[in-house]
Structures are given as C-alpha cells and as structure tokens.
Amino acid sequence: MINLAWRDIRHAWSKFLFTGAGLGLLIGATMTMAGVYRGMVDDAKVLLDNSGSDLWVVQQGTLGPYAEPSSLYDDTWRSIRTVPGVERAANATYLTMQVRKGNADVRAMVVGTSTVSYGDPGQPGYLVAGRQITRGHYEAVADMATRFSLGDSIQIRRKQYTVVGLTRRMVSSSGDPMVFIPLKDAQEAQFLKDNDAILQQRRRTALNPAFNPPGQPKLLDAVISSQSTNPYVNAVLVQLKPGQNHGKVADEIKRWKHLQVYTRAEMEQILIGKLIATSARQIGMFMVILMVVSAAIVAFIIYTLTMGKIREIAVLKLIGTRNKTIVAMILQQALGLGLIGFIAGKLVATLWAPIFPKYVLLEPGDALRGLLAVIVICSLSSVIAIRAALKVDPAEAIGG
Prior knowledge:
Shape: elongated
Number of helices: 13
Radius of gyration: 31 Å
Largest sheet: 10 strands, mixed
Oligomer: single chain
Order of helices and strands: HHEEHEEEEEEEHHHEEHEHHHHHH
Helix content: 40-55%
Number of domains: 2
Strand content: 15-25%
Number of strands: 12
C-alpha cells in the first residue's frame, strides 16, 4: 500500500503540492510566532549582557531600571564603589524616545553612559565602526539597526549629536535599538522642560516668599539654579572583582546603602517573568489558535481526499485488502501532506524572519518540536478520514 499511496499522490501531485504549500504558510506563521517569543527573550538577555554589569543598584522598592522608573542621586556611585568586592561602579540613565535625523525619526532607547574611563559598565561593549564617546557632550554611539552612519547629525530633544561610533545588537528588552550619549546630556534630556514651562516655574518660584524673601536675592538665584539641574540617574551599574559572591555583595549594599540591588539572575527574571510575560501569553494563544486551525485544515483535506477515493477503497475491500492496509495508506498521505507543509513552513519562516522589524530567533530545537507537532497533528487529523473509509460498504459504493 506504500506504492499505492505514492501513486495516488503522484496522480494528483499538483493539488497535493499546492495544498501542502498552503498548509506550510500556517506552519510558517506558527514557527514565526515562536521565533518572536524567542527573540523577545534573547533581547532581554542581550540587554543585560551588553550592560557589562554584575549588579544593578536602583531606587528602593522598585523593579528598575528597565521594568519600572527608578531615581538615584548621581553621586551614589561613589559610596557604592567603596563596598568591598566592587571593582567598578558607574551611573546610567535609560530613556525610550524618538531620535530624529533630518525629517525622519527612529524609536530608540537613549542610554546615558559614563565617560570617566574606558570600560565602565554601561558603555557599548564593542564597536563595528568608529570610536567610543570621548567628550562630555554632543557625541553618540548608535546601534546599526537605527540605520545611522558615522558622521550623521542626530537630534535628541533640542540638542544635536554627531554619531562617532556604530555598534550591533545593542537593543532594549522591547527590541528598540540603543543610542549612547554622555551621561550629563542624557540627564538633561530625560527631564528637559520646554521654555514656557521653565518661565512659568521661575515665575512661581519668584512669587513664593519662602524662596524670595526681601533683601536676599541670592536665595532666589540658588533655588532657580537647583531647579535647572538634574542630579538623578536611573541606576548604578556595578562590576565585581573576580571570585566575588554576587549575592553577598548585593546584601552588603542593601544593608548599608538602603537601596535595591538585583543580581543578573534576578534582573533576568524581572525582564522575562514580568516585563514580557503578557506578550508571551498572547503569543502563546496565537500559536494555539494557529495549531488548531492547521489541524482542522489537515483533517478537512485528508477527509476530502479520502471521500474522493470511495470507489477505489471499495474495490480494495472486495479483493480482500485488510483494514490496516487502508489505514496505513490514509495515514501515509496525511504524513506526506504534513511533511510538505513543514518544509514549506520552515522555508518561508526563514525567508521572512529578517524582514520583521523585531528580532525573530528561529532555533533548531523549535523546528524539531514543530516537526513532531506536525506529525501528531496529521496523525490525529486523519482519524476522521480513517473512520469514514472503514465504514464504506463495497456493494453500495460500487453500485452507487
């Protein structure tokens, strides 16, 4: 019956092939959804890897700096640097916004990074072109996904920056490319007010007798000056000396500095278990729906193909063919259809994955699990057709 199944497929090969290709589009969509989830997880891990940090020190009681807002004084790093076991500590700010180049803009995460010394945590770990930021103002390093080039002039808030370096695969947990600028510029950009708001604030301050008492004009100037600066950062990134226990150092900082500290494992759990958890569940629901639809389509196709061969099945029964042979023939056709669909789905998923705006990670293990799922779906979907074939009455089918 293997030859009989193959001959039947060869007899209507074009219909069988196109049907499998159509099924492949559904399978490819399912594999792509799995790749989108894998890409989101990989983006979160890449974000942590690229920070170059062993510990994240953030505002007490928050899940910052990626999942929740966090605010620390920008001199906090000095006291953290003195904690035993700490090798380096550096401030960092994170702000997701539109970065403008000419008449176009790009959604990006703007990272304020330390320029005190090369190798501080938070700086881009490697460059594919150009150099690192060496000046305290108006220089930027951008991820290649922004499509910026060396020497481009980009606008962040009201300031212009020159792209001096390019990096790759520096993204936020949501897949937005990163743009690194000096810390002071990032602090200003994060809390920059428009001119009208600044004037209104100064007017209100001047009208407040507590800030503008008679005979003390310097007090008003001092208050206005303090309102014009931003002494805050979102996190302090900490690198530890080799061989240090991350949990022990984190507990020391929590105990003596009264701040929240996260290790790499804890931060990964926050990003994957909390930040992208809802998106993961939604993707999972889409995958279930696509699998159910695929199963329904395979069942309908196999049933239709089987019902189109009622006379042939009746003849097989008349000549004494056993039921298990007929079952094997139908099952082989179902698995053949699933195999064609899987190959087509894997091909289209691989071809269109790079076109997606966010990273799609197609892992070999997912492809293997997808193949096993296709085999199971095709086997179960052929049950209806098999039951219908076994109920065929030869005399009635041939006589009809």
